[in-house]
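Hello,

Our lab assistant flagged a job as stuck in the queue for most of the afternoon. It eventually completed. Since we weren't sure the result was trustworthy after the delay, we are filing this so someone can double-check. Below is the sequence as submitted and the structure that was eventually returned. Let us know if re-running is recommended.
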Amino acid sequence: MKIMTDGVRIGPITLNNGITKRNALTFFYASFFTVGIISFMSFMQPYVLTENLNIPADEQGASTSILAFTYELVMLLLIAPFGALADKIGRRPIYCLGFLWVGVSLVIFPLAETMTQLVMGRMFFAVGAAAVTSMMATVLADYPQERSRGFMVAMSGIANGLGAVTLVIGMSQLPALFKSMGYSTLMSGRFTYAIAACLCVVTTIIVFRGLSTLKPSDGKKDKEDIRQLLKEGLQEARKNPRIAVACIEAFIARGDLMVVSVFFSLWANQAGLAQGMDLETAIKTAGSFLIIIQLTSLVWAPIWGIILDRVDRLTAVVIAMFLATIGYLWVGFSPSPIVAAFIPAAIMLGIGEFSAILAGITLVGQEAPKEIRGSVVGLFNFCGSFGILCISLVGGYVYDAWRPGAPFIVVGMINAIILVIALTVRLKVGYRPPVK
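-- returned structure --
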């Protein structure tokens, strides 16, 4: 591959040396599909709980909590090692293997007939999800030059949102379509998952052909043990309070995403069923309100990208935590997620969710040393998985015991706490420009 001296440009984004436009476009597609397929899996989960297992609505919060906990337990164990392994063998092979693994798991998951089988299927899916999400974050940190990092993150966020919207819109229509063709509700769901699995195979081919084969390491790390690479990432977080704040922020930012993708889908689906809709119609209605959240993120993305490249990125984390606190508390105290009065809360939620997710990864991308970036980003993702692990345990319990919006209230309160921590550190360490 020809090595560039100044870096090629793709629109307003200047890429690092050795990264081509094809590499960047492939990454944007991979970002599109990574979040899209994970959103699809979470969105369709209530369908399986209702149709395959016949779990009553007042028990689905606890079941969702179990599935989320075991899923994130696997993510917690694997996502940091995947990040460290990427520093040794490169990003592309792990990304490709992850998509193939996800495809196989999508065939297995809807075949479950017991809760135990469903949990095992979700854990199997988590292995592939850990691979693709860790590589998405690592490649995002690799490709842009520092002056373009915020805009690159924003464009990746747009790809994420488009992926979630596209797959939720498209795939939520399929069960009703198959049902109209004469298939049972159970088989309609299984056919929908099978189509998603085929898309994973196509994506694997695209990623294999399009991502860069280069590693950012200069080769000095190749013989180090993976545990040593992870240790270096932790040491860097201890030395740099900005990285430490990014990791703390990841704890709740990934939790934010889980609450929206898992508990919102469950809440909206149950609200539709409570209004007398059949399962296929309830899924479509839930999808329409989830799309409002995601479309808001897309509109907000370029605005947030400009902000990220013009303010201290730790200040951006403070702003993001403030917006997320408002959004999650507003949604949590809303009476229903599928009425017109909910739309303003959904818009604020979309802004807060997007801001929180991108602020942390932009900060850690700026602060992480190039030679151990995979390890630092792996640690960042590890913290995110640990956050989801904790929130999934609490969220399922308060969902059944208190109110469907309770997981959002819990997340909103945690956002407020991290807002105070980030602001305190920002005042202590002082200003740092967004471009080194």
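-- support follow-up --
The delay was a queue issue, not a problem with the job. The result is valid. Residues 1-5, 218-223 have pLDDT under 50 and may be disordered. The domain at 17-210+226-429 is CATH 1.20.1250.20 (Growth Hormone; Chain: A;).
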